[in-house]
User: Which sequence fits this backbone?
């Protein structure tokens, strides 16, 4: 059984439970203790995963959960992302009624993400899906605003629909193969009727797309990004997709060649990139814009999955892109949580004059999401496009770059007002923009990390290229 | 030494950004000082330079960057890049001296230009495709902020058009780079290795497509017709120092890409498509000159002459692809002329744009008909302007003549029909003489009344550029001794 292989997941889950219980008994003013507990749990997870990375790949619970370099990297990345999100939470949630519940739900959802990434069995995948999704429903609706309720309802219904799709797919695949373990699926599905296998695969992948927030299950993402609190919006656009995309990679690695799964993934990738970019163009609310931008980023992330197993660059480039995307997205959201009342792009006018470092972080984050060198996402886009071309999908590389150009349009629509001079002299001093301290600091740290990961891509790549699935 | 030259301005920019308490005066003089030190280092480099052999680089430095895709921090100079590095250092020093009278946020402007200087120098010395691309894109970002932040007129829109258009070009370039990487065995982004291997020599279709991607990217930056439409608005609305750098340095990044990347790495494809490049060059020469003739806005006119001058370079490098036994020397002369034109155009057009900035500064308009008889109130301005105009049209004794003479000698010897591009020189002469006549001769009227003559900072920024052009025109040997071996190497590589 080897439960200790899942020590990092256990640490986070226990941390969530402790935060929940402690929060029930602590006074409102002392709820910050739960934030410390959550942070400690995440740090413990990072340390435990780091130690486990040094060893070889092993499987736990009779082969249903694998602990290899990819799982280790996802663990570290997801925990680090949640840690940065906690940095944002300090400003927004301190002293609010649902503070400790938020931290607990964040930690539970992170555990679900980790389970998704390490699952080597269809049923464990379904468990991870539920564990990652259900806390999200609560998190989105916690603010108790009408828009929050609408977003939570939308997420819940979509989650229910795609959860059913996932379970239906799992059932079909189990039915034709007789096993839910990935190791068994490859030979057994090869002899199964292709139509049934295709239907099962579509169901499972569509379900995972809900978690990733990509086409065709993307409808909830912009609403949730707009209506949830800043902390939750940052979390839901960053962390669940880390686990979901790696889960898709593991799944397609276990499928036989009788099903044209690259075609399915490439359709989702191209549709996601294009739809996300085109829809983002019309947005005026920065959070909604970032929500649509994450939909398009999932499209970019699926590109190396298309050539999984066909190119050596596929897995390292996927992990690199995920890492770069995580810090850059958090930096962009951190700027919006630093100025939470500014819910229109034109209200950012004069930011550069008043708060140059915050504006600089915004520019680095947005141009980073486009993929301007020398940021981490540039190296990610370069290597994923190279992997796609190497794997025989050169047209996909061209589509990646065309969509990169399209995405530049709407990011510039945010950068341009920020660098325009303020409206009149007495309304454009430092006093017009008063950012929340922790969010501003997090934005700066995340933007610097995004640049540093791009410039120091060599060592990071060396770690990631040891990943095997 | 090369890394010091490249990153010294960046370090100075970081200092300027990190210390907001630095006064404006200190910031401006620090900018001048750093660019002067950088120029001194480049001169020291030039004095110690010895021509490396074929496919070699002098002052080479290499450090690992992304070993996973075989991309390293690899820099070095040879006869193609050293003159451009020197030209870049000179132009940025001239801009720093010009900027001594800047009133609008001089500290930030100095930091931005120092950053842009690092990026430009880095591009010319890079010997790795991804490193080249990083600097290429960063130059676009920096120039966007220069135009949007310190421009006038419809600067926001022009800057946006510049950014989007050249960014599209850079993405096409990246697609081409990935194609080269995957075709090479072992996969690498290193320029020296790729030039040696010429990976797509056996596959004409793939080579043609990769060359098309790279050419589109470089053609947008150069710019050649039909990808030139971003240039006139960007120049018209940019500040004077911004235009000088855009024309002097950034446009050379495109043409440098032709001789450094496209020709050595894709010789077969270049030979097959040489006539396309020649036609594009000739059309750019003639179209640029004719449209410039029709302009009434002086800065827009000079912008179109840039299209014309870059057309000569495209013509020359295209001719270098018409491989035949008896034309090897002619083609080497053409490529030498192309590189000389790059240096010459940078100096001369940089000077012209700085002079145009004087018009904007004194009278807020570039419209040539608003002036008349300006020679009387502003004789220094008139002298420098006349020198710049004659240099730009290719008068002997200036560097432009040396460059254009070599280009035409080489091109006409290899492909006589290209002599049609000589009409471009005629039209350019006409348009500059007409501009001189409209602005400076006749009765002093309109905005010329009360026009203040050049300040010391303006004289000392424009003057040295034109003097250098004159020196190169009269004593071209030192420059040509550096370029000729490298041009010979490029012609050999293309002829494979």
Assistant:
């Amino acid at each position: 059984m080897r439960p200790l292989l899942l020590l990092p997941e256990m640490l986070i889950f226990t941390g969530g439970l402790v935060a929940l219980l402690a929060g029930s008994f602590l006074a409102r003013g002392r709820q910050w203790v739960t934030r410390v507990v959550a942070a400690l749990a995440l740090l413990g997870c990072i340390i435990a995963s780091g130690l486990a990375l040094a060893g070889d790949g092993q499987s736990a619970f009779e082969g249903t959960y694998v602990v290899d370099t990819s799982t280790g990297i996802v663990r570290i990345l997801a925990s680090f992302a949640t840690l940065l999100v906690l940095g944002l939470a300090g400003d927004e949630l301190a002293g609010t009624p649902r503070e400790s519940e938020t931290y607990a739900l964040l930690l539970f959802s992170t555990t679900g993400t980790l389970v998704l990434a390490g699952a080597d069995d269809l049923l464990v995948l379904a468990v991870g899906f539920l564990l990652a999704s259900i806390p999200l429903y609560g998190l989105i609706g916690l603010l108790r605003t009408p828009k929050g309720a609408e977003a939570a309802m939308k997420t819940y219904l979509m989650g229910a629909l795609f959860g059913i799709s996932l379970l239906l797919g799992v059932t079909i695949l189990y039915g034709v193969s007789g096993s839910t373990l990935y190791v068994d699926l490859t030979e057994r599905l090869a002899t199964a009727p292709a139509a049934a296998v295709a239907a099962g695969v579509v169901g499972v992948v569509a379900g995972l797309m809900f978690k990733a927030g990509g086409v065709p299950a993307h409808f909830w993402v912009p609403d949730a990004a707009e209506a949830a609190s800043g902390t939750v919006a940052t979390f839901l656009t960053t962390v669940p997709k880390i686990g979901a995309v790696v889960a898709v990679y593991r799944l397609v690695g276990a499928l036989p060649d009788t099903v044209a799964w690259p075609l399915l993934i490439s359709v989702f990738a191209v549709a996601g990139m294009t739809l996300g970019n085109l829809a983002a163009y019309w947005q005026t609310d920065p959070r909604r814009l970032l929500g649509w931008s994450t939909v398009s980023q999932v499209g970019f992330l699926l590109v190396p999955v298309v050539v999984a197993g066909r190119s050596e660059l596929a897995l390292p480039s996927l992990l690199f892109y995920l890492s770069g995307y995580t810090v850059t997205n958090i930096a962009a959201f951190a700027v919006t949580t630093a100025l939470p009342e500014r819910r229109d792009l034109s209200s950012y006018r004069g930011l550069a004059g008043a708060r140059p470092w915050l504006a600089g972080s915004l520019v680095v984050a947005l141009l980073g999401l486009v993929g301007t060198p020398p940021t981490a996402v540039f190296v990610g886009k370069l290597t994923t496009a190279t992997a796609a071309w190497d794997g025989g999908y050169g047209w996909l590389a061209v589509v990646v770059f065309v969509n990169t150009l399209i995405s530049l349009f709407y990011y510039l629509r945010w950068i341009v007002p920020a660098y325009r001079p303020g409206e009149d002299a007495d309304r454009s001093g430092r006093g017009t923009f008063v950012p929340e301290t922790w969010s501003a600091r997090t934005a700066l740290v995340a933007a610097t990390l995004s640049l540093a990961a791009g410039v120091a891509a060599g060592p990071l790549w060396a770690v990631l290229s040891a990943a095997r699935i | 030494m090369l890394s010091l030259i490249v990153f010294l301005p960046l370090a100075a920019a970081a200092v300027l950004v990190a210390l907001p308490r630095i006064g404006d005066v200190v910031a401006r003089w620090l900018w001048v000082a750093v660019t002067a030190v950088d120029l001194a280092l480049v001169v020291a480099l030039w004095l110690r330079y010895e021509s490396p052999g074929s496919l070699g680089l002098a002052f080479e430095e290499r450090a690992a960057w992304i070993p996973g895709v075989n991309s390293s921090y690899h820099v070095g100079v040879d006869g193609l890049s050293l003159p451009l590095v020197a030209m870049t250092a000179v132009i940025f020093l001239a801009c720093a001296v010009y900027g001594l009278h800047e009133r609008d946020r001089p500290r930030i402007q100095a930091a931005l230009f120092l950053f842009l200087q690092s990026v430009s120098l880095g591009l010319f010395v890079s010997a790795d495709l991804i490193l080249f691309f990083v600097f290429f894109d960063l130059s676009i970002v920096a120039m966007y902020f220069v135009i949007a932040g310190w421009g006038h007129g419809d600067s926001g829109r022009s800057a946006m058009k510049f950014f989007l258009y050249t960014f599209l070009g850079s993405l096409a370039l990246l697609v081409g780079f990935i194609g080269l990487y995957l075709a090479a065995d072992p996969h690498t982004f290193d320029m020296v290795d790729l030039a040696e291997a010429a990976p797509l020599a056996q596959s004409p279709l793939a080579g043609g497509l990769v060359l098309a991607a790279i050419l589109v990217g470089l053609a947008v930056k150069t710019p050649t017709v039909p990808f030139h439409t971003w240039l006139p608005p960007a120049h018209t609305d940019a500040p004077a120092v911004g235009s000088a750098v855009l024309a002097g340095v950034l446009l050379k990044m495109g043409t440098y890409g032709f001789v450094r990347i496209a020709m050595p790495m894709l010789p077969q494809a270049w030979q097959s498509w040489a006539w396309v490049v020649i036609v594009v060059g000739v059309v750019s020469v003639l179209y640029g000159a004719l449209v410039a003739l029709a302009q009434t806005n002086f800065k827009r006119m000079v912008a179109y002459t840039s299209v014309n001058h870059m057309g000569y370079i495209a013509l020359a490098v295209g001719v270098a692809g018409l491989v035949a036994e008896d034309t090897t020397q002619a083609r080497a002369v053409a490529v030498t002329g192309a590189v000389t034109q790059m240096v010459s155009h940078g100096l001369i057009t940089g000077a012209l744009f700085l002079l145009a900035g004087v018009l904007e500064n004194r009278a807020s308009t570039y419209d040539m008909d608003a002036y008349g008889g300006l020679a009387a109130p502003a004789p220094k301005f008139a002298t420098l302007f006349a020198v710049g105009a004659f240099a730009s049209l290719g008068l002997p004794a200036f560097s432009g003549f040396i460059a254009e003479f070599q280009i035409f000698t080489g091109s006409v010897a290899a492909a006589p029909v290209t002599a049609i591009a000589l009409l471009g020189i005629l039209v350019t002469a006409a348009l500059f003489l007409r501009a001189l006549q409209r602005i400076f001769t006749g009765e002093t009227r309109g905005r010329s009344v009360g026009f203040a003559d050049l300040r010391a900072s303006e004289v000392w920024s424009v003057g040295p550029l034109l003097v250098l052009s004159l020196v190169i025109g009269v004593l071209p040997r030192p420059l040509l001794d550096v370029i000729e071996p490298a041009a010979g190497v490029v012609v050999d590589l293309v002829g494979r």
In short: The mean pLDDT of chain A is 90. The first strand of chain A starts at residue 58 and ends at 60. Residues 141 and 254 of chain A are 37 Å apart (CA to CA).
